[in-house]
TrEMBL record, chains A, B:
Cellular component terms per the entry's GO annotation: chromatin; nucleus
Protein name: TBX1 factor
Annotated GO biological process: anatomical structure morphogenesis; cell fate specification; positive regulation of DNA-templated transcription
Region of the whole protein represented: 18 to 246 of 286
Predominant subcellular localization, coarse grouping: nucleus
Keywords annotated in UniProt: Developmental protein, DNA-binding, Nucleus, Transcription, Transcription regulation
MF (Gene Ontology): DNA-binding transcription factor activity, RNA polymerase II-specific; RNA polymerase II cis-regulatory region sequence-specific DNA binding
Length: 229, 229
DNA sequence: TTCTTGTCACCTAGGTGTTAATAT
DNA sequence: ATATTAACACCTAGGTGACAAGAA
């Protein structure tokens, strides 16, 4: 069985409609997909990997702003037509693969090396996604079968876990300002854009900035839900 | 067979008498111990590890300076007596261990996570060494024998490689100023102490500093010697 | 006096959203 | 008008030797 880490944070993003940046060079996900794993054979070898499947066959489009200004995006999405042709369905193997069950279970497994790109010609092995499309991350565990004819047992040596709260829309720039603010509030690497951190205030204060999105800090919840399998 | 990377740099340090800093928290080696490996079974599993053995049973001592000043260290060492009691003989497994021969051979294997400490009570798994003692790094390759009674074949599944040019004296502060200068000249992380880099000059110039040790740049040599085995 | 420790400025390396310019 | 790109300031994270203070 598998338990999603930082579920409370994922839930908070999911409630607003999670967006993940895709760039030509590749961008990490935030939150990072991390899991705790239980019930493996400690002595057996496993491969851990992720892939991303389209949630629907739609292309999205931002709701036109009544102000006619680019400066503020709404949180509403319009369906803009059928999805673009599917991208090469790449897979990301966790770099520690293969490893023993004991190794995987003894600490949180983090996919922080996984990067998303919109470059169809990417040759860095990153996950290729279409911007303005919705995706569902999937987590797969493959038991490395030591038997000679292991190919015949592929079905039973394979297990997939899906956490619906990790769904997101791929974007090249954030569309929903509340998503931006929650990323700034919760991602350590975006600390430079925070305005209400009491520690470094008013030294870091920049006029005209938006208030801190503190919902994350208020609603932490250590309980994770089981995976929909 | 195994080939030492950056042999020219190691030679240059060795000629001056290599020193490696040891700290309580643990300090990386520079140069980093890196090797290219040939002749493994691509499909077999191997563990790669290093350990450090005393070169002799002596404790060293800096030659007293004729100036009576701490500010300048000589390049000469005196024997100061018998070695201190041996430290716990720890080993450092390369973090990618175990891995297939194909994986190890397809790129340079770098021990850049290895750290040296003088803290006898270290609980970070670092290599514990006595300051003012000389050490010889050793590199070991262990074939992971799939046979049930693999312990009986430990001897033949084990191979050790020694590069004498990687010998060094463990120190808590550099003793030979020429070693300091060569470290500054060749370690990217010490760039802040360089004075003769034409790129950033004179912006970075600090008065009273010593000239750049450019021997490394002058004497690069891509040919590595075979290991003394 | 010699050796060790802790703090520091200055780097490398790379992950953020912002912004202005460009593409579609 | 909307979507994408590239350069940028500002962070995290951590590897350097210098230096002053302390320990032996």
């Amino acid at each position: 069985s598998v338990q999603l880490e930082m579920k409370a944070l994922w839930d908070e993003f999911n409630q607003l409609g999670t967006e993940m940046i895709v760039t030509k060079a590749g961008r990490r996900m935030f939150p990072t997909f991390q899991v705790k794993i239980f019930g493996m054979d400690p002595m057996a070898d496993y491969m851990l990997l992720m892939d991303f499947v389209p949630v629907d066959d739609k292309r999205y489009r931002q709701l036109p702003s009544p102000l006619g200004r680019y400066a503020f995006h709404s949180s509403s999405w319009l369906v803009a037509g059928k999805a673009d042709p599917a991208t090469p369905g790449r897979v990301h193997y966790h770099p520690d693969s293969p490893a023993k069950g004991a190794q995987w279970m003894k600490q949180i497994v983090s996919f922080d090396k996984l990067k998303l790109t919109n470059n169809l010609l990417d040759d860095n092995g990153h996950i290729i996604l279409n911007s303005m499309h919705r995706y569902q991350p999937r987590f797969h565990v493959v038991y490395v079968d030591p038997r000679k004819d292991s190919e015949k047992y592929a079905e039973e040596n394979f297990k997939t876990f899906v956490f619906e709260e990790t769904r997101f829309t791929a974007v090249t720039a954030y569309q929903n300002h509340r998503i931006t603010q929650l990323k700034i509030a919760s991602n350590p690497f975006a600390k430079g854009f925070r305005d209400c951190d009491p520690e470094d205030w008013p030294r870091n204060h920049r006029p005209g900035a938006l208030p801190l999105m503190s919902a994350f800090a208020r609603s932490r919840n250590p309980v994770s839900s089981p995976a929909h399998q």
